[in-house]
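Quick sanity check, Caspase recruitment domain-containing protein 19:
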Amino acid sequence: QSYCHRLQHDMYFLTSTSRLNEQVVDKIVLQLNRVYPQILTNEEAEKFRNPKASLHTRLSDLLKHLQKKGDRHCQEFYRALQINAEELFNDLPSRKILKTPDPTEIDTDKEQYMLNDRGPVFFLACFSVAAGLALFWYCCNSETQVIGRARRILGFSPIIIGRHVRNICMLYLEDMSRN
């Protein structure tokens, strides 16, 4: 969506009462007058800063003027609005439309949460099972002769593995060593 269309969409929101005060409008006009390339000439800036006209009228005229000038001018207005009134800029209706996700698109934040919702205990349990199976497979391999070392490791691991699991593994290792 072009900046001109966004500005047209946001015009009512911006011109409604108490959204922008005189100081913020003056800052925006001055920034548009001083930015390179110059968006507003000195005469236009004085016209939109005229304290004799009401704020609503000046702001409406400014927005209409920027829409006539083109997309680049509207873009610079949004940049000035973001710098001088960031909260208002974030509350613009066009920004909310841009922030709304496409229903067919995957929300990566939600997907990340869904993948990690089990917590650290689940991870530790899965890791322990995988490590136990790897150790078991390594010890059961007939080509390796590390049963004595594995027995020592399992003997000193009551914290890592539960006692009943350790006892089963020790019995299995003793049977393997007899064969």
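Posting the structure with no commentary besides this: The two ends are 77 Å apart (CA to CA).
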